[in-house]
Amino acid sequence: MEKIKLTEELSFSRMIHGLWRLNDWNLKDQELVMLIEECLDLGITTFDHADIYGNYQNEAIFGKALALKPSLRDKMEIVTKCGIKLLSNQRPDHEVKHYDTSKDHIIKSAENSLKNLQTDYVDVLLIHRPDPAMDPEEVAEAFTLLKEQGKVKHFGVSNFTPSQFDMLSSYLPFPLVTNQVEISVSHLETFQDGTIEHCLQKRVAPMAWSPVAGGKIFNATDEKSVRIKKALLEVGEELGTKELDKLMYAWLLYHPAKIMPVIGSGKIERIRSAVDALSIKMTCQHWYKIWIASTGVDVA
């Protein structure tokens, strides 16, 4: 599988496995080991986590699987996130859902992630969402300390606008390596608000969460989804596939920004289908047919 070079020392697999719903998959530890191995066999080496996923439990589930076969760790890149504090029975001191990007919280969250994942380091730590009360000097201090201690190799952000990305970058002695944002055939805002252009300008490959639009294109109950589904099927007929998810991934892969879709499925057949999208070669006209179906208007 194609690898996307983020720095001289770090590359991600073009397709990334997302563990947001890991605890919903009800996998036994050995079954999760097998799923990880199957992903690696497909060329997927990058695994996406967050401290809050699965009500703060998914990192530990993944860590238990890694502990069963520690040799897997050197074959993968682990991404995790921090900065959101949920209302949760796992965190009884949280009185309101809020953001916390203080130096203390970032360090404690990263160290807790290391413990739960049963690893000595995380390849990339992301700030999960922009924090209106963020002190960038504190974030920079936390990032620098974690890097110096070898606990986190690289850093990035998630759901940041171009200006938020640049603001935080200006306080750091090293580059942010990615911005994980929502991108799909149904969610074009990142193309329209300057985020994708910013990634291209900074040579930062974005990670795409919800790359198949949360599944709503499959059922297509609203007018926009109906238009998109129709366009996908028409393009698919020309390309020799009726698999909507494969076509939605191929649409993202077409773009020169080197978008890296995060596959949020625990079913290996769905993961294989996503990887198969790498072999689909859309044309410019295919891409714009889907774009126009999503916007509902012709380009000017």
TrEMBL record:
This is Aldo/keto reductase family oxidoreductase. Belongs to the aldo/keto reductase family. Aldo/keto reductase 2 subfamily. The lineage of its organism: Bacteria, Bacillati, Bacillota, Bacilli, Bacillales. Gene3D superfamilies: NADP-dependent oxidoreductase domain (3.20.20.100). Pfam families: Aldo_ket_red (PF00248). Keywords: NADP, Oxidoreductase. GO terms for molecular function: oxidoreductase activity. InterPro entries: AKR_Detox_Biosynth, NAD(P)_OxRdtase_dom_sf, NADP_OxRdtase_dom. One of its GO terms (cellular component) is cytosol. Residues 14-287 form the NADP-dependent oxidoreductase domain. PANTHER family: NADH-SPECIFIC METHYLGLYOXAL REDUCTASE-RELATED (PTHR43364), OXIDOREDUCTASE YDHF (PTHR43364:SF1). It comes from the Bacteria.
